[in-house]
Amino acid sequence: MASCKGCGPGYSSPLDAMKGPREQIVYLPCIYRNTEVLKPDYLATVDVDPESPTFCQVIHRLPMPNLRDELHHSGWNACSSCFGDTTKKRNRLILPSLISSRIYVVDVGTNPRAPQMHKMVEPIDVLWKCGLANPHTTHCLANGQIMISCMGDTQGNNKGGFILLDGETFEVVGNWEHPGEAASFGYDFWYQPRHNVMISTEWGAPKALNGGFNPAHVKDGLYGTSLTVWDWTTHRKLQTLDLGEEGAIPLEIRFLHEPSATEGYVGCALQGNVFRFYQTAKGDWTAEKVISVPSKKVEGWMLPDMPSLITDILISLDDRFLFFSNWLHGDIRQYDITDRRKPRLVGQVFLGGSLVNDGPVKVLKDPENQPQPPPRIIQGKRVPGAPQMLQLSLDGLRLYVTTSLYSGWDKQFYPDMIREGSVMMQVDVNTVTGGLTLNENFLVDFGKEPDGPVLAHELRYPGGDCTSDIWL
């Protein structure tokens, strides 16, 4: 199947995907909400082909029809889960809006370098048909439908449900979960059909997120601490795994790519921990902390202890390496996960952050005894913000990085990024022994956009990537 030309989208296996062509363009949602610019968010197409005359440039911009959507994460109408279906094509990018609750469907198939709007799903359809709002993560399903996790109800309260879109008409079909069985909170999810399981994660109540991060809201129970385990076939909740204080705000969840695997990792933002989740011999699921990035005692910051704030994680397609970003401390880390229970740190690079040695924050005590890093300057541009969203090339050699998390938190923690715009960087990955090195010849400065500085977020390749493709 790997060599057949009549196959469906994606690749027959994760290892086959690693042999795919090098990425030439990437798509990024660009956000104006919470900035000084009153313009619609847009989808940017960036040329990442080093042989191209427009290398490191935005070559197309598709503005949304509305203001203040807060485009966030994106997904596909079809991916490798549909590989055996010749009737399916990966030709539509799904763009949910975190704040407005609109869902945009973008045609990236007709002209991949100049995407066009295909359809818009209005918030009222999501509300009336599903009783949900604040859509976040999109995954395509093998049956042709599209599933999107949601974070709240229409009043801004936490509610972790899922909406289904028809894969042809993109109309809202209804809820995936049964009536009254939504999780307490919503955010990310990953499914594993071979073991009849889906696991979802939790961020916080939308009404708490809207005005920035307030530590008191954690004590008030407005942020999640649990993983929810679902039966993939019956859509019933099987378990709630409460990770406790050490697992507060579990964000991105990644199963190993190998479809027979019964384990994966989740990054827990607030305490800087990574948990490994896995299926036990009894058939149920549990989780254990396997990585901890300690907070640093500081002065000159909002709190006396600064957590690393793990905000994005991903796993290489061969399941050898785990990468994650520490959005407050400002570094990206690479771990060898050959021993699944004992990840081993093999690479680290600082790219901005709140600890830079010429900034207002002074580290008083660091359990890791690391010096405060210098500011990162690329081609004369000082990096505002810190590494946040990650995307790895299929072959595992290039890690792309953007710096915006969510406009409300960007404004609070990195006001310079609101003024100057975010950036996109590239890190070279040593896949033999491990190691991360910034590519000094690569920079996309979103502070130079025609309508003013903008916040660029999650990255997608037209052919699929290691955070959106699921194999059966």
UniProtKB/TrEMBL annotation:
<keyword id="KW-0560">Oxidoreductase</keyword>
<dbReference type="GO" id="GO:0005634">
    <property type="term" value="C:nucleus"/>
</dbReference>
<dbReference type="GO" id="GO:0008430">
    <property type="term" value="F:selenium binding"/>
</dbReference>
<protein>
    <recommendedName>
        <fullName>Methanethiol oxidase</fullName>
        <ecNumber>1.8.3.4</ecNumber>
    </recommendedName>
</protein>
<keyword id="KW-0653">Protein transport</keyword>
<keyword id="KW-0711">Selenium</keyword>
<keyword id="KW-0007">Acetylation</keyword>
<dbReference type="InterPro" id="IPR008826">
    <property type="entry name" value="Se-bd"/>
</dbReference>
<dbReference type="GO" id="GO:0016020">
    <property type="term" value="C:membrane"/>
</dbReference>
<comment type="similarity">
    <text>Belongs to the selenium-binding protein family.</text>
</comment>
<comment type="function">
    <text>Catalyzes the oxidation of methanethiol, an organosulfur compound known to be produced in substantial amounts by gut bacteria. Selenium-binding protein which may be involved in the sensing of reactive xenobiotics in the cytoplasm. May be involved in intra-Golgi protein transport.</text>
</comment>
<dbReference type="Pfam" id="PF05694">
    <property type="entry name" value="SBP56"/>
</dbReference>
<dbReference type="GO" id="GO:0005829">
    <property type="term" value="C:cytosol"/>
</dbReference>
<dbReference type="GO" id="GO:0018549">
    <property type="term" value="F:methanethiol oxidase activity"/>
</dbReference>
<keyword id="KW-0963">Cytoplasm</keyword>
<keyword id="KW-0813">Transport</keyword>
<dbReference type="GO" id="GO:0015031">
    <property type="term" value="P:protein transport"/>
</dbReference>
<keyword id="KW-0472">Membrane</keyword>
<comment type="pathway">
    <text>Organosulfur degradation.</text>
</comment>
<keyword id="KW-0539">Nucleus</keyword>
